[in-house]
Amino acid sequence: MMKILVINCGSSSIKYQAYDMPGKRLLARGLVERIGEPAGLFVHRRDSEKFESESRVADHQAAMTLVLEALTHPERGVVKSIREIGAVGHRVVHGGEAYSAPVLIDGDVEQAIEDYGELAPLHNPPNLVGIRAARAALPGVPMAAVFDTAFHQTLPPEAYLYPLPYEIYEKYRIRKYGFHGSSHQYVASRTAELLRRDPAAGLKLVTCHLGNGCSLAAVRDGKSVDTSMGFTPLAGVMMGTRSGDIDPCVPLYLQGKPEFARPGDVDRMLNKHSGLLGVGGVSNDMRNCIETAERDGPKSRAALALDMFAYRIRFFIGAYTAVLGGLDAIALTGGIGENSHPMRARILDGLGGVGAKMDPERNAAMTGGKEGSIAAAGSACEILIVPTDEEGFIAAETHRLCGEARPATAG
Q: In terms of domains, do 220 and 322 share one?
């Protein structure tokens, strides 16, 4: 048995989960938010218990100290000593072309994560801060990096290259990388289990990670062959606040307008003020958009945003069915994919052309983390709701890499 700590470090937050492996039993989870701000928030959960406090958290090292104190607390903790933590798994957003699988973290890996910070400036630097904070708090404990981009390194060149001068790719490595890889890999594997199919024996899936950030993947033989996000997570389908795919000349055109004159204005608009929020004018939360559309009617901006969201997902499912040469199953996951039966209905009702037929009653009943089929009798392909488990996937990969290794020292 090994206790593994999973860390997801953002620029001002740390999310964590502690597992007993290999059984993947969740021991505790929580988060530290507003790191470096006057009033930080710390939430720790164990079973049905929730412990919450507010105080200033100076930096990520102080946040990591809070996490370890909670895990070892005599009343609400789950280990008697941090010496019981056998390994740490880190979610890292960008591994570029260097990493197609999780790896043990050493100096070279840290340097690569830092180098790829140019491609993921909002994510890789804080991921690296989390790694260093964990090492300082848990010296000698083996750590693994699990990359969001790794699963998509199996894309063929015709899928990952952009039709730019080839020298641009060679010099700057501008290509499609894809993201949400841990989620897509877990969901594809779990879908194969539910179908009782060998994923490497011709299984053709489209996995749909639908939340505030959204991406789809075409998966054949257990490998990603295309995905909707690209060089950055902005590409692909419409999202909560991100535009998804647009004409590349639109940003160039807007940069000449007075309201987009400052550096970064167009980038902020595309990433923070577009998508459901930008079109609907209400919220990036799907629930709020649906409530507003039901109240204001089918001609409202909120209803238009929902129609656009569903249309773009159907577009990619249809395209990926052609790429795969058929379709065995559609798997939906993420906050929207797992819980929003009205949006699932909007998406799936228009997919008769690929043979997907949804059962409305089964769809309406499938919320709250339930797993299973919502396909109607006679559907040519399966339609499954598969709750994602990115943290559990990271824990499993970390356990696989670290084995039963014990920390050399621990504070």
A: yes
Q: How far apart are CA 13 and CA 184, in angstroms?
A: 24
Do 143 and 185 have their domain in common?
A: no
- Residue 153 CA to residue 220 CA, distance in Å, equals 13
Q: Given 47, 106, 115, 148, which residue is catalytic?
A: 148
> CB atoms < 10 A from the CB of 177, how many?
30
Q: What CA–CA distance (Å, rounded) separates 140 from 120? A: 28
User: Is 154 inside a domain boundary?
Assistant: no
- Cα end-to-end span (Å), the chain: 21
Number of domains in the chain: 2
Global pTM value: 0.92
Residues 196 and 117 in one domain: no
Are 209 and 358 members of one domain? Answer: yes
Query: 73 is written with which tokens?
Result: 């607390």
Task: Tell me the two tokens of residue 310.
Answer: 């569903």
The CB density around residue 7, as the number of other CB atoms within 10 Å, is 23
Rounded Cα–Cα distance for residues 66 and 57 (Å): 9
What does the block give as tokens for 101?
């699988």
Q: Is 285 a catalytic residue?
A: no
Q: What pLDDT, in 10s, does the model give residues 108-134?
A: 999 999 999 888 887 898 899 899 999
pLDDT digit string, tens, across residues 367-402: 888 999 999 999 999 999 999 999 999 999 999 999
Q: Give which of 188, 119, 121 is closest to 149, Cα–Cα.
A: 119
The pair of three-digit structure tokens given for residue 257, joined into one six-digit string: 């307008």
Residue 310 and residue 347 in contact, taking contact as beta carbons nearer than 8 Å: yes
Same domain, 68 and 135: yes
